[in-house]
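Example protein as discussed:

>
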Amino acid sequence: MKKSLTEELSRMHSMMYGKQIDEQEFIDKFLKNIGFRKEDDPIKADFVEDDLEAFYDTLESAAEKGGLTQQPTGGIDYQKEVESMQIGLILLGYDLPRFGVDGLFGPETASAVNEFTSDKVSSEITEAFVRLGDTNYSHVKFDTDGTQNDQINQALLDDLQAAGSKADVVITITTAKSGHSKLTINGRPSRHATNTAVDIALLDGIGAGGATNETNGNSTFRELGNRVKNELLNMGYALNAEGGNKRAVLWQTNTGGNHYNHLHVSNTEGVLGSAPSSLSSPSETMVKATPEMLEKLIELLKEKGISSEDLKKLTDPLVGNIDISISGNWLEMTKQLIRKFETFTDTASDDEGTFRGGYGTSKKLVDDELVDVTSETTWTKDEAEETLDYQLKNTFAPIIASQLGSNNWEKLNDFQKASILSFAYNAGPYFLTAREYGKNIKNAIENGDMEAAAAYISQGPTTGAKTGQYYPGLSKRREFEAKLFLN
């Protein structure tokens, strides 16, 4: 925001509201109302460039290596292969509205992989799926509100028919894929999205009567549900533990929602990319982008004829480590700021879904290498200092300098460098190219408008990325960093 633009916006404000304010007051007040995305940890991988041949080579290499697997919460790493897959999914219409292209294989990307696999890969294996409206089971019926058009894993339907027959209960599937979110209430990919799960809210034509626990509602429905559940368990289905199990039934539990008023039954056997892995957390299901899925992605992208320009729209300039001068006082200033704001802890604790310790970092320097912090990681003060020094010299400062450009980095004074590195240590090293507020800060620095840059810094993230919780300490930190930037 150059001075001339600031002046013009201030003039427009006075025309609209009949009140003249000075430029600095305008920046402070105007920026509070322009709708920044206040998300903590806005890190972005930015590994992919607009080289079309290299883009396809990356995807083909991932397929040859056996595909890509969703990463567990707290153990996510940035991967060029994941970033390439995300770009491909978006170009084919499978949006990632919340996190976009970030190189992380989390729940949002897993949901898009599930949907793509269901639409473009699993649908080609016609023997594995059957349209509900085309079935003629004696003990499995379905609603005709759109559910009849869902394609369901036939192995699941065959099992339901067997269970219903043995229990002497007519099962009515009330919802399947239609009408369901791609994610569960816990933010994990839902099996409904891959046509491998159904909900059953009618048994012998009887409903649950508004049941919300094991005693209220219709007792007949509950008794029939128990009979069906028991037959499914006899067939090897897991009870109330879907993650890590190919076949599962949720019944008389609040796991994943109210399953007192319906049975949730799933079966991923024989379906590409849907089988869960064995996990440390039994409630979490990992999704895999199989070689078949990635090969189909490549095929459809080539059919569409995507260009380097298409890639360029979804990639930022490659940023990474560069050699920069570490002379001056900015390094020690930054350390002082981080010690002030982060506070040393000798054990790790969960912070917005990630374990952190030392000076609030998710990494620890071990034998000259940064490793992920776990719940068991411990720190001495010296270890925390060594890690902080290493990260600032080898990660944060080089990445920030690369994103700004060496000329812009060198024109910052020590106070400004310390301010922006403190910001990056909290918000993530790639915020200047990954987030809108970061781009505004970068543009202001490039234009030499340090007052506007400071104003944007003051309006940086103040809430947690996952919980959305407001942290007053972050508001104070942003204010301090902004004032320091103008020193």
Notes: The two ends are 19 Å apart (CA to CA). Residues 52-105+290-314 form one domain. The chain has three domains: 35-40+318-485, 52-105+290-314, 126-271.
